[in-house]
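Figure 3 (text version): structure tokens given as input.
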């Protein structure tokens, strides 16, 4: 169904065109990027040896449907910036498959026993998707960000390699 393809600089315009406003950018990327998203911001990440960027390709439809990244930390790897572009494709199992592919890639390519991600607490659809793959909320790790006089709470979720292997469906 989905395939991870390495993101290249020439993929940047496609991704940039999908980020319509600062709220969408914050939801997608957290506070690291600044609106409007630019090719330069993406190229900086491409040059980071600890960041692995992917274009999500739908093999059935033969087109790009999203974006995702893996960031290596000291003892874990972080899944992030996961975006399925077309809202009509959400709730159809793409998210679960993308996360499974990212975990499969991360656990097979990096010497890490744990993967983690951060998600805003109001993004219940994403949280449920991550739980279906086996992620659990870490109640000790949270952060806040402010946008348009609102406070968004980011929760951290983790899964270890053994749990992922036993949770596979």
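Below: residues designed for each position.
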């Amino acid at each position: 169904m989905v395939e991870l393809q390495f993101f290249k600089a020439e993929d940047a315009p496609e991704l940039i065109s999908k980020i319509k406003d600062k709220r969408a950018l914050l939801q997608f990327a957290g506070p690291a990027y600044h609106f409007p998203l630019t090719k330069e911001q993406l190229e900086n990440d491409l040059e980071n040896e600890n960041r692995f960027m992917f274009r999500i390709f739908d093999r059935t439809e033969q087109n790009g449907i999203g974006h995702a990244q893996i960031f290596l930390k000291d003892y874990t790897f972080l899944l992030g910036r996961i975006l399925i572009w077309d809202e009509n494709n959400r709730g159809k199992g793409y998210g679960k498959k993308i996360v499974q592919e990212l975990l499969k890639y991360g656990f097979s390519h990096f010497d890490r026993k744990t993967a983690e991600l951060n998600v805003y607490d109001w993004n219940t659809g994403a949280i449920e998707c991550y739980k279906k793959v086996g992620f659990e909320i870490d109640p000790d790790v949270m952060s806040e960000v402010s946008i348009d006089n609102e406070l968004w709470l980011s929760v951290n979720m983790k899964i270890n390699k053994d749990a992922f292997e036993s949770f596979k469906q």
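The beta strands are 2-6, 51-58, 63-72, 76-84, 114-120, 136-147, 150-160.
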